[in-house]
Write the structure tokens for this entry.
Amino acid sequence: MMDDLVFFDTMRQGIWVAFIISLPILIAALVSGVSIGLVQALTSVQEMTLTFVPKLAAIGVVFWMSMNFMTNTLVAFFHSQIIPLIIGG
């Protein structure tokens, strides 16, 4: 039977891993959104697809570039935390 402290510690570590994994994509979306917004404000062009398409492209590129990091981080978390809890160690 799992202790409450072990459960909450595992949840805390899982949330931290999710945060670390999602950080590159969130930063890419933030940087591309702010830069496109700045260009729109400077040129007075208010086109909805002008913000969506570059942001989607930036997210796709950063996701493709950071897939190895994300996979390794998630697999390390599972091997070090989740699998020993399932086995009972």
Notes: The chain has one domain: 4-87. The radius of gyration is 19 Å. The first helix runs from residue 4 to 43.
